[in-house]
């Protein structure tokens, strides 16, 4: 994790280690005492508007189950303005995977999890936030007009499933569902991110079924 941060920010690894140590002490990050894996801490989650209690235990268990079943990245995000903010991620162990970075923000209109978050708001609120368009174009498949996005959001509200194929990045697909959050908190959603090349009809059907019918022991 720290080596990945070092690579992404082009900072020396010792510098990143010191920064992360400080953020752990200040509770902006948490570090697993066994795996040394870093996750968002209570301070950053409070800033983001996500309470630590409530859905956490259930969702984390569900995320592990989905990750074990499909061996794909399973992500949790809230809506932060016009962006999806990743709060948690359980990565795939495959060589070809999506490599979601916890704490990163992406334009909500261009991904499955972002559209799932937007679908939980009224259209007028979405228009006020995003503006009339056109929206940032990431690929040739990005929904960049209001009419395109509204049609997608209406479909998500009807089916509860949000999908994206090569909309944020070529070769990346996603499937997401909304989650219930605490009253007054931002919209919350969970997603499975899969390289498009692995999105066979059978896989997609199983992923959609698992997202719509969670089974957590």
Can you walk through the features of this model?
The chain is α+β, with helices and mostly antiparallel strands. Helices cover 39% and strands 21% of the residues. It has eight helices and eight strands. The protein has helices at residues 2-9, 13-25, 42-48, 56-70, 112-118, 123-130, 146-159, 201-212, and strands at residues 29-31, 38-40, 73-80, 83-90, 105-107, 162-165, 172-179, 188-195. The strands form two sheets. Strands 5-4-3-8-7-6 form a six-stranded antiparallel β-sheet, sandwiched between helices. Strands 1-2 form a two-stranded antiparallel sheet. A hairpin with a 6-residue loop joins strand 1 (29-31) and strand 2. Helix 1 packs across helix 2 (13-25). It is globular and about 50 Å long. The protein starts with a helix and ends in a 5-residue tail after the last helix. The model is unreliable at 50-54 (pLDDT under 50).
């Amino acid at each position: 994790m720290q080596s990945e941060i070092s690579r992404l920010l082009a900072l020396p690894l010792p510098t990143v280690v010191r920064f992360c140590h400080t953020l752990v002490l200040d509770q902006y990050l948490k570090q697993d005492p066994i795996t040394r894996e870093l996750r968002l801490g209570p301070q950053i989650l409070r800033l983001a508007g996500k309470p630590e209690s409530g859905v956490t235990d259930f969702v984390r268990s569900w995320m592990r189950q989905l990750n074990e079943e499909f061996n794909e990245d399973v992500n949790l995000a809230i809506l932060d303005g016009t962006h999806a903010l990743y709060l948690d991620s359980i990565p795939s162990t495959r060589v070809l995977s999506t490599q979601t970075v916890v704490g990163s923000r992406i334009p909500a209109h261009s991904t499955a999890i972002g559209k799932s978050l937007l679908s939980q708001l009224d259209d007028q609120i979405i228009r006020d936030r995003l503006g009339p368009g056109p929206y940032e174009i990431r690929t040739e498949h990005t929904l960049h007009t209001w009419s395109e996005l509204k049609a997608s959001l209406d479909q998500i509200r009807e089916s509860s499933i949000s999908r994206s194929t090569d909309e944020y990045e070529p070769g990346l697909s996603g499937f997401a569902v909304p989650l219930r959050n605490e009253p007054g908190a931002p919209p919350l959603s969970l997603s499975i991110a899969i390289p498009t090349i692995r999105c066979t009809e059978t896989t997609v059907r199983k992923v959609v079924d698992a997202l719509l019918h969670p089974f957590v022991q």
